[in-house]
Design goal:
Length: about 220
């Protein structure tokens, strides 16, 4: 279970936020506003980040939801990270991964899950997880920072994946390309990502993500 720091170090005043992380604030704010009701009700028992490029957005959204739950006296949701699947996975590999995910999901509560990803295009990367959640009878919503609806229209994505989808922008966020900020790398056939390098850049990215989360917490108060 991911433990998000309550007081992560802020970046030095002389260093500006990384543009790829600063860009996340506006689309994530839109997502949070659309999900305000289930968040304030405490619907989400687990947040699953789509590794690897969804890791930073998940940290930001998770920190904001933790703050809202604190204001309502609720325990924090579990925050987990699972490796996204490759778009070109063969059927047998996808079915095998779904089976392993179903087994893993037995460790979760039956409460609603929020899946966080950086970009939705065809939905293929999330399909094994979505199928495993459906088979496990765990309800879920999907929060995508970016959505390429010219590739796959939203109703088709929701039918394919089986959950409500909210998105923040109609494009691919810059964080998708910034692999050095993730701290992990993935093998699409695996469930979990593996630790990566770039320790200084990863620490800076986490500090920047904390600053963005604090901005959003100020704007996304339980009564705001």
């Amino acid at each position: 279970m991911e433990q998000l720091p309550t007081h992560a170090p802020r970046p030095p005043l002389e260093r500006r936020l990384s543009p790829s992380i600063a860009q996340l604030e506006a689309p994530i704010r839109k997502i949070l506003e659309e999900l305000r009701e289930p968040i304030e009700r405490g619907d989400y028992g687990t947040i699953i980040g789509d590794d690897a490029s969804g890791r930073i957005p998940t940290r930001i959204i998770g920190e904001v939801i933790n703050a809202v739950y604190d204001a309502h006296g609720r325990p924090h949701p579990d925050i987990r990270f699972l490796a996204g699947s490759g778009r070109g996975m063969k059927l047998l590999a996808r079915k095998h991964k779904e089976s392993r995910l179903e087994e893993y999901l037995r460790s979760l509560s039956r409460a609603r899950v929020l899946i966080v990803t950086d970009t939705l295009a065809t939905g293929g990367s999330l399909l094994p997880l979505a199928n495993a959640l459906r088979k496990s009878r765990i309800p879920f919503d999907i929060a995508a920072v970016g959505a390429l609806l010219d590739v796959t229209p939203l109703p088709e994505l929701e039918r394919k994946l089986g959950g409500r989808i909210v998105y923040g922008m109609l494009n691919t966020p810059q964080i998708y390309e910034r692999k050095e900020k993730r701290g992990v790398y993935k093998e699409p056939e695996e469930i979990f990502s593996r630790p990566g390098g770039y320790t200084r850049l990863v620490n800076e990215a986490r500090a920047d993500a904390h600053v963005v989360a604090q901005h959003l917490i100020e704007k996304f108060s339980p009564h705001g």
